[in-house]
Fold these 3 entries.
Entry 1:
Amino acid sequence: MALSRHKALILCTVFIYVMAVLGKASLVDTEQPVYFQHQRRALANPPIPASSQRLQNASSVNAAENLVTAAIVKQGAYNKHRVANPRRNAYKSKTSSSAAHLIELDAQGPAAPNLTDELRAAAALLAERDAAEQLANGTLHKSYAQFAKLPRPFLNIYNDDENKKSRSLLEDRATSNSSYWVAQLSENGRPSMGYDTSYPVYRDVTNPMFGGGAKGDGVTDDTAAINAAIAYGGNCGENCLSSSVKGTLIYFPPGTYLISTPINAYYYSQLVGDANDIPIIKTSASFIGLGAIQSDVYIPNDNGNEWYVEQSNFYRQVRNFVIDISDTTTANAAGLHWQVGQATSVTNVAISASQASGDGNTQMGMYTENGSGGFMSDVTIVGGAYGIYGGNQQYTVRNFQIIEQTTACICLIWDWGWTWSGLYLSTAPIGISLINPQGSAGGGAITGSTYVMDSQFFDLTVGLDAAFNKTILESSIITLDNIDLNAVQTVVTYANGDVLEGIPTTGIDFVVIGNVENDGSNFGQFEASVPDRPSGLVNSVIYDRPLYYTKSRPQYETLSSSSIISVKDHGAVGDGVTDDTAAINSALALATTENLIYFPAGSYIVTSTIIVPAHTRMTGSVWSQLVASGSYFADAASPKVMLQVGNSGDVGTVEISDMLFTSIGPLPGLILVEWNVQAASQGSVGIWDAHFRIGGAYGTKLQVAQCPASSPIQAGCIAAAMMLHITPEANGYFENVWAWVADHDIDDAQNTQITVAVARGILIESSGPNWLYGTASEHSILYQYNFANTSNTFAGMIQTESPYYQFTEATESPGPFNSSVGMYSGDPIFPDSTCNGTALLCNFAWAVLMQGTTNLTIAGAGLYSWYDNYIETCVDTQNCQQRLVYDDGNNGGLHLWNLVTIGSVEMISDYSGDAILAKPNTQAS
């Protein structure tokens, strides 16, 4: 669904099929060796393989080969079934027939091999044998020339010929042997909220205290050591759905890490490689598994159940790695098996898969099977049958380069809404496929909404290959916005061989393919006349139009430890008990744009407003927590801010990353963050991978014991007035930011649902420019997003959920915040006479309010209402609430593209009571 005002243009969801076309020439000349620094050191001083009596024993090796060969065949059959039958999310309730069908498919499939100690040891033995042979014949260290010669070279990699260097600025820095500060300063972190102080947050995988220590020498199998480091101390793995206190930073120093079974990335974990000399994770030929790194683990013989719940598999990072699976022989293996929810990211990662031709190449760079993401950026994938294969509820992907696949760069087998920005797809038969090649497998899943923007398609036989019929068109949509085409033979084809006529082969300005409602339904291609993007929102690069500005999460690779100011050096404790307000202010007083204010892992109690100067760069570790506490924030009639970023009128540079903003107890007058600063230059102020959480965690006093799922709302669970306020004179860049009022208790063994009340989610009053990439806001009682008198703002895939506890008179909006309605610009009024439903359906939290906006573009929105008073069956009948999106009629230059709603009677509602209904636009599945 898409809305363009004032022309009343409504576009509904599209679905696209793919044909496999074989054969492509190599994109790059790989004659010149290209190595990372640690590879060069290893080449100069080769490691000595560990002697093994078992390697000298032919019978031991033969026994291992027999065991592993059988396991690889069994794992391949399981992988094939898993890929053909993804455990996708369902539009229907968990008790519906479609959900039951997915469980049935799992039960019918082949079982994965049981990874016994004996099998793991056998796989490791063969991995070390093969690595020793590669070391002897000079093939152990692979040249990654492809990564260096792409349009956006992968960082910190350079040619072996010192006279022919062609390096980016960051690549030059890599030659300085400078160490990454994270390895030097992370050890003094502590668990959240004063949890067990003996629990190590920071784990260097080479440290012998963690299972013996990985070697990173490329010839020693490091699987057991890496997984031991992750699991150490009773970390949240099997039989632990989630935890707010067992966060870990798993650090990989430079090196090549050989693995023979998957690395299990636990809940609330960050897997971080050295940003200056990026480590390589290399799967062996004897690798047994689906993904080299997996974010969840299927439980053997348990009908497809996993360690975690994919929609609530929160708080994950994987950054700064090369993942090389090219040697692996197991069918349908992937670099990443990524099943995650919000507050997750994959950044600065390169995946090298097999470049073998033909049907025998079944590898995938990433298998994104399911979940409710999520954000990924700055990823390069070379080789495989597919670069990305799978689906997710919603996702934002930015700055991906995917090249040299044998089938398709991207194959989305299901989704509700994805926004892709800055793709470079090249040297493959198909750029993007939007259908499950397994046909009706996977519960008949089809792709919903796909928005591709500011991207390049180069040297492809087909850009998009789609099945095209009326049924699909009524349920899906694809939007192509500012696409550069070069050597693309056919832009869009269909499974029956037809070609979509009229699309230029050199570039696309703006095209929608699908169901268009514009004075009646139409099907097929629709070219929209969209205005120029506001100058403040774009950069200097032009395809058909200038590209939207983007900025990657800063990692401060070149800073030395002497340029980093730890708040602990100024007296902060971070134990969830000590008042750290004064210590934090003391550290911030020293902030400049040349240094970095660092919060080691922990929970820092804040009892009054902290003001961040307009010349501050600050970061945390494992989402270091700023925790509002005390009576200062308790007065609903006089709200107070915990973190005030600048003062009104300030202009400067502010960067915030890897932080979590939260609270303790009932604080109805709390505003977590107020953003006042304006950028001194484009993109100089922003937030990256920092999140908001109210309740549902250890130490918050807003858990299941205090705030059970009940009506009415308990007085002790009225928790905050607002999460994020971007004020009229401010602007900013916001990427991978999740504002969550907890719907369940993360630290409860069953993740039991809770009732916590917060008035407002994110209020944006800014005149811009503003960028929101991969943001989400959930469960506030008045609204999730309020664009009030907002100008010059771009939002790429926003996501919301309504509170689960509404649909009773005691919990209807505005609930306990009735006396404060009108205190902030654009506060909605309840009840509202323009609503067409019952009072209980109408007095519900808004997902998005658009009031008096100018030049607001929303490129993808997934807005969901799942429950009525914790009962899910309303999803099946699409009447959990009446309305989600409000247009007050005073908006100019408003574009809402690829809107996906669930559980609401109306998709878009305006000031007059007119509405676009959801039911006619429901996906067929």
Note: Residues 561-921 form a domain with the Pectate Lyase C-like fold (CATH 2.160.20.10).
Entry 2:
Amino acid sequence: WDELSFPIRNSTLRGFQICPVNNHRKKSDTQNWLRSPFMKLIGRSRIYIELNFSMRECHDLEDTICRETFKIYYAIANNGSRNPNLDENTFTTIDTVAAEDHFHPRKKGGSYINTEVVTVVMPASVDISSTGIYIALMDEGACMALISLRVYSIVCPSVTDSLAVFPETLTGQLDTSLVKVSGECVEHSRLAVPHRSLHPPVFHCTSDGKWNVQTGTCYCEAGYEPDGLKQRCQPCPRNSFKSSSGNENCTKCPGTSFTTGLASVTCMCSTGFNISSIDADCGVCPTLPSAPLKLNVIKSTIHPGVVRLKWKKPADLGHCRNISYYSTSSKATTDHSNSTFGKCNHVIYHPSQCTSDTPHINVHNLHGRTNYTFTVFAINSITERHYSNSISAIKTGLFTIHQKAMGSLHLVQANYTSVDIEWNPPSYTNGDQVTYRVGAHVSPHTSYMLVNITRTRLTSLNSGTSYKVAVHAINSAGNNASSVLVFSTLSDASQTTRGHMDDPLASTYIYLIAAVSVLIFSVKINQKPISLSISMQQINSWYVLDQRTYVDPFSIGPIEPHKFGCETDPNRVSIGKVIGCGEFGEVFRGTLTLKDFHGKQSVIDVAIKQLHALCQPHEQIDFLHEAKALEQFQHPNIVKLEAVVTASRPFMIVTELMANGCLGMFLRHQRAAKRFFKPVVLIRMLYGVSEGMEYLSKLGYVHRDLAARNVLINKDLVCKVADFGLTRQINDHNTCTNTKGGKISLRWAAPEAVAYQTYSEASDVWSFGVFAWEVVTYGEKPYWSLTNQQVLQAINDYRLPAPEDCPSVLHQLMLECWHRDRNARPQFSRVVGRLDTMLNQRGMLDTLASPSSTG
């Protein structure tokens, strides 16, 4: 090798050149070595070598040995005091480098400089803290010039995030490595906060030098608040305070208080407001709340003499966290300053007159033709303890009037078990829609129904029985006097032979069915003469009953008590085009609007899984089980939950958007376009999914439906496990879980899952083996077109054959995952280790399994 200067881009660089072809050698018997100086590793487990070089073409040199490649090597040494031997026994091969662009002496112009980057991963046996490395090039006949050789490593730079400082960190040994780094809290912050779980701030350094998957945080001390970027804790400004540690902003002192400097933990009360905090509910210098806002009265069109009062909470809560409301009603206009707190009056309030915590209340048992004044007071701790009167009130009036009496009631026809009755509508209805309440009485029970037509049929009556029927015409103004009819059904001597209900009381109930728009409800009245005025205390529902019975599964399911920490307002979710369909709903591409603690908004792309309106109760429960499971998972190979919508319909699960969608479809598209990956890329996909499954198994979860369709892939080809609708947690005493009924993905299911519906980590490992087969076949359907019965036989007696171009070591791992004895299958921790070995020792991927091999 000769050292010389190269003119490059108006500058001169020193480099090395060799051109054995000038010697017209007939055979390759010379190795020309070029070695770097000794370089200390200083903890680097992975280094990169960048070479810039040019190379001559060889096609016109027929009588001379000429090559168009050269080799690059490395050697580990304890120090640089001894020069290593320049031979292949001392140095380890990194790669054979070939040029993409070549020059020729007769070609003019153009750039023929090639750039190549190779990676060296230090073996686990090397002590990277004390040893160093030599880099060497070996030429066996190429005519080339080495312009530059750069040896470097990648680090994640020092960064401050979540009020913690993370130092500069070397990347991990593998492409998929995540180096876990704990941060140190910034000044005026600390880790421990009372009554909160401790999660030290942790960042993960990825192989490309970026920080990712941040968890935990530090908390600003009392008197300090985080800045907008959460990089430092700054003191509370003057006339604001923060009484405890946390990352909330400082609170402005109430108008009745002040501070004397910065970083205050409390405010000083102004003169005349030296009332100390009453209890934990109120802050410093509390006062009366302001009046409620926008009181509105809504008349019921279904229930007579019933209204709903609705209002908005006060603008000022008097520096207390909680507020309640007290409601009054009067038949005359009342000055609210003279209204005192006393016992509730004769009007019935639901749920409560005196202690309502919600900004609405139902008022029952109102009289018609009456001018009512409704007043709502806002109450906090100061109101209750220091004032007999409250000025925090808002009032409104409601004028109601009864309609005139309805026409007569008469019998149209009657038989043994049913009658038809009809009546004339009232002559004046006050302009509101009229509903008729029909009551039928046979001692000691009365049954009711609501209809909106003037004729109905009473069915399922007892033959030879006397009934008393009364009909009221009702609207929002109340109800009028009833029209009453007494009749008897025809006698039937054979009645005693007919079937009857075992319960002697049940046989006296009347089932009333209207022909059009019937609203049914029943009330039992014990040992009373007919009285068709229902107690308003029994009317608790503020909606019209449908003919169908709707059962909310979350009133009975185990998921009901769960409160999601990532619950969001559906108005923050913007739904776009459909990107997928499922059995229980659709998946949309969309956006989610996020708001930080300063109120600054940001919009991110998301995937939105929406449950369709006609789903069954068990489907809703499975849907919420999936959301509940996702909320607990934080792993780079588990799809990230961004938000949920469960407080309103339709239910939505909002996750990060994976640009390439489901892995199975992605691989099939690649196969159709004849775009195939190197085996190492496919194994890297499997490695990511196996790490995600290992994480799940350590948490005690079984997925139960692992398949390529339930794995998502992003633009960087990172795979993440998704679709946790069937996921179940195993308790501490069991290693498996049993299910009854339900669907099963037969082609991915382990034998014990098919036979006994028993699931465990081992059954997920079996599914992982089938999933790996899917990946290597680019989305082929397992067992192809076999029927379910044939698949069952194959699961019991055979195994899937090795895919084409499948490395033998990978197919062997599949066969181990498919061991009939579930206790003999590898755990996911072992699967991760096996795939990691394949990524580090890529030479073992060169041996391919026979396509006819089934183990």
Note: DSSP finds nine helices and 54 strands in the chain.
Entry 3:
Amino acid sequence: MVQEEVNLVGDVKKQADKLKSNLIDIQSVLEDAERKQVKERAVRVWLDKLKDVCYDMDDVLDEWSYAILTWKTGDAEENIHNQQKIRCSFLGSPCFRLNQVVQRRDIALKIKEVSEKVDEIANERARHGLQINRGTDEIQRLISTSLVDELNVCGRDNEKKIIVSKLLAESSQEARDVDVISLVGLGGIGKTTLAQLAFNDAEVTAHFEKKIWVCVSEPFDEVRIAKAILEKLEGSTPNLVELQSLLERVSQSIKGMRFLLVLDDVWTENHEHWEQLKRSLTGCARGSRILVTTRKATVATMMRTNHQINIETLSDDACRSIFNHLAFHERGKDECERLTDIGNEIVNKCKGLPLAAKVLGGLMQSKRTREEWEDVLCSELWRLDQVDKDQVEKKIFLPLLLSYYDLPSVVRRCFLYCAMFPKDYKMNRDELVKMWMAQGYLKGTGSRDMEVVGEQSLNLSQSSIKEIPKEVGKLIHLRDLNLKWCRELVSLPETMCDLCNLQSLDVRECWSLKELPRATVKLINLRHLCIDDSGVAFMPKGIGRLTCLRTLDYFPLCGGGENESKAANLRELKNLDHIGGSLDIRNLRGGGIEDAAEAQLKNKKRLLHLYLFLIEDDNLIEVLQPPSDLERLSIHNYGGIGLPNWMMALTRLQELELSYCFNLEVLPPLGRLPNLESLRLYASEVRRLDAGFVGIEEVENANNINEGEIARVTAFPKLKSLEISGVEEWDGIERRVGEEDATTTSIFIIMPQLQQLIIEECPLLRALPDYVLAASLQELRLYDCRNLEVLPPLGRLPNLESLVLEMLQVRRLDAGFLGIEEVENADNINEGKIARVAAFPKLKRLHIRTLFGLEEWDGIERRVGEEDATTTSIFIIMPQLQRLEIDFCPLLRALPDYVLAASLQELRLGGCGNLEVLPPLGRLPNLETLKFSWLGVRRYTDDMELDVAVHTAI
């Protein structure tokens, strides 16, 4: 007995390795068993036992990994001065080694116990015929035909018309090619039925010389498909067996023929399988068609589909018709009325799936009493009695399980894990992936990370927890520790760093947490460290050893003081080349240039967002070069006079923010960044935006410029959002081609996609360049531009939806603001002309605030046919305005009629002491909110009759 235990202790590593090997084999068996359990209940019971053992195996292997880490740490501390190599033996400190022996013995006994369970279950494996390799398909696939009962099809008339029209339309391909039409949708949604309806349509039958129906299914068997085509074309099955001979025969048979080929239930995404078959179909007559049904959009893409038709779920009425046709068959009127309300609720469970409506309708056909119907309604489908359950499983679940079992084994387990969440639960993608990782569902292969191939989890987020107990270190199986929003948490225990299997630590928004434990560097399996917006002031020294890290969102530098000796510097980032997503580096004035260079940020290829805070000189930022694929860059509190040279090499940059760069006077040619979508310049010393900022040069000789060259001087080609502050001058770019001709063409295309423009705190700015007033502009805000006395013709912006004017010196809003001119001769104006003088055609929100000098807001009264009984305004102004706010315009005397659009829903007027008369607000049919404050109104017009439904505050 003693000898046996000694052998156990000595061979524990060997036994652990063997157990790992068994775990890999069992995962293959699990895949086969999961497929067979659908039809064999005995396999389900065996599978549950096997999964339990798998969890036991996983736990004991975790304990073994933890023990190894503990021993290595102990050896390292014992030999820290002489740096001897760690040895796993029974020699050394007697007390420490004795603990190792005891721990080895305990683990060895657990491994032995689990191994015995595995052996017992393995003996049962043969009885169920399970194989290590992936088993064959255990689910019978229904073979479809072209036959259909049209009388029982509901709610698909429109889809049928679309499909038939595509089949009969002129070919979009060359004469030798065949148009492919793909019907894509969920299993059971009715793709095959629609294909059958189109296949049997009278016009379709008359249009094609031959119609061929092939049920493809899985696997994609080219030989079988070719034989099926030939059988229909020639009337008999050929004796050929070689694919080459069969395809040549197909090619000869369809030569010059206009045919329709339906390939029903296609699954394969293998391009080679399809191309061999398609090549044999060339040479047919123009107008031939291939109609494909598939559950996968990727299949439609692979087959080079000309027309993809996505089949949506049925309406409730159509589902109800299918259900009622079966469920109420041969029932009396009174009985139908008694069960209709329950039937409608059952139909709601079908979620528009015709197969579900059909199967449940058939199930209810045999239910005679209301109680039986209520039992079905109140039960989940898997809780029905055995007979009903069998019927539902076979007719609904089995067809749908085809999609499930088409998934890779790894994806199937991840999919099943989601079933633990409540219905309609919104899952965070990144959190879900971490949980899959913690469960061991995702395994890295080669260079592929677990995250790319997609926890036993302790989630204490949003709790009021103030302290984590020291005993947390004993939870050695813990993978994910989520403490997000624990805002009273002051510290983390050092014992937490004993969690050698921990993969994710989240302390975001733990504002009271000032530092991480020193031993955090022991968490060698940590992949995600999230500390953004916490109180953590520095990273612990040695953090660079955590080379498994994939997420490190925040890296504050110490910058001196009492914590400097235990704080990490920038060079610790050197070996963390796998970090991706966002990285926020704070307090960079505490980082040296040599340390910054050693960080080698450019090697972090997965890094997409970089935030740099508090940099004092140009040299430091120059060595912090990020990877060229960076998508977002923010630089805050920068003391240099110029931006780094590497910035213009960021050709994939989408967002750029420069704020509080107090010495920055000149910008690089940012207009040359081809993918820049958002640019924010705030609180810098840049006083002028000129052609250099746009990234173009003056053209001396424009006579020979052609269309191709015009395209080459496009600046900010993808910019959608621009925020500017502190600028004094903003130069326009006026150089044009053909200036002496009647028609001129600008050689510069600047910000053609701009949608949002915000200009703030530019008190010396006198004018805006024309190019920022792009036709695509949807939102414009002008704030504290006190020298801007005349506004450009903003009414000409065809897509502007929101306009905010605040703290401007504008004294008058007239026709120039609207972008229209007075019409001298209205006699010949027709409907077309009226459309051409529309102003603010899409404006929905107008907010005018603190325009202290605004005195006049001109109305536009010019009309067509003023002498007639009926008059038509030649100006259409703000026809879609929904929200109007006017605050603190003390000199404003009146509002123009055009702001009182019929679409107006909210009107707020305040601080307009000179506004003495209100317009006829009672005529506004859609007004919902009306608020007055601090007005000089002395009387209301006769039309000031407000509906009681309008919310009013006066």
Note: The first helix runs from residue 2 to 10.
